[in-house]
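Appendix B, Record 12. Input sequence as logged:
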Amino acid sequence: MEPLTSAGHTLYFESSLAALKTLLESNKYSKVFVLADEHTSEICLPLFQSLLDDFWEFDLIETSAGEENKNIDFCIGIWKTLLDFEADRKSLMINLGGGVVTDMGGFIASTYKRGIDFINVPTTLLSQVDASVGGKTGIDIDNVKNMVGTFTLPQMVFIETAFLKTLPQRELLSGFAEMIKHGLIYDKPYYEKLKESNYLTPSAQDIYRSVEIKNEVVTIDPHEKNLRKILNFGHTIGHAIEGYSLVNDKNPLTHGEAIAIGFVCEAALSIKNSTLTKEELNDISGYILSLYPKYHIKKESFDTLLELMQSDKKNEDGNILFSLLESTGKCTFNCRVSTADILSSLDYYNSL
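Logged structural output:
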């Protein structure tokens, strides 16, 4: 597959680590660090090394897995580790892992000594089709997602589907939600194609199309001033539910499971506040519920969810702003929605 160019860096697909090998052999970098969590260091790092012909010239920095660890305390620990390893401004960080690793690793690299180069090698479906594009780095504060971060581009991104064979079914389904979103907001034929596909074995072509869609949007609006906001469809409510679940549920929702709930709720909002039809809402709701386990949004959580939505970084002038569907495959943004309608959308999901 042809590489994609995104805002000055390149995304490589399918067994294309030769470009990384050439970069590492160029002697451009004084030190190379690989950031991974305890799972990817055990499962994905050996595969990564084998794809690079037994690459060993690096120092491994291992962090704990999970969204709950994407915070400033872990960043401080990793910054101190870089200092202990005498990392200078000519060092390179390779972020090997899912979105938590690439988001946090990118933030750490972009701020360490005012910025060192980094490369992302996403190993989950979610990180390949979502976090791989756009230059967003970030960490969470008080379970509000990505409240501190930068827009900083990696040197390169490598999307290798061989890593997907290491994933459990739940993680594949989580990533598939972002692929569904890309179809819903931008490409109806792609959405219809996904409905006929198997999320357990997503094709390289479908992954490529998802990355291509996000890249097209980000290229037009790199700093999320206008069009890029459509990528937040499902995420205003979904992020709030994800944050709540992380604190209150013994088995918290994955990102994909939470934003899938957000798709249904925000599609319901699109009926009242945009031009989505009832038939389209029924189609989206039915499809999502056929894939993702039903989650009961507790009535007593509604006020907390509204508070989390109020902290969403997309808001302006105290208004919660949504990206809503005009139709399947077309999205608008900066939609002001009443509190009553938001609560009604949560009730709608629970009623299904």
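The first helix runs from residue 18 to 24.
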